[in-house]
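Appendix B. One record, verbatim.
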Amino acid sequence: MNIEDKIVEKINSIEDVKKDFHKLWINKDSFKKHIEKRLKLSHIKDKDDYIFKTIDCVINADEYILAIHKDSWNNLCYNKNNNWAVIFNENGEIMTSYKVEPDKKGFEELHKEVGGKIEKGEVDERVREAFKRLRERYKSLGK
């Protein structure tokens, strides 16, 4: 099963989008820490803003970047207009979702520096559609 299959499978397993969105992450603590960090940096207004930026990044991603490592985890990055990025591990779990800062090294550059092989391509439509359904379900719940 490839990373995209695992992402779609995880999304399809989410029942209560607001309560269980953290299940797309490596773990609940990681999700909370990422929200806290983005709030401190003023990159998001609140948890809902973070969730929507994460979802919208994948839906509107220009491409995917896959970093393949010989003796380590592979990572998959979705990038929207070089503005926001969402990184998945090879288990289809979100590792991070963040505002791209032009003055810092990007996903591709960082992985090349440590010997990662880079592949790029178009976003799998099944992933886009799964995130679109997730967004609609989230919106329908209101605040």
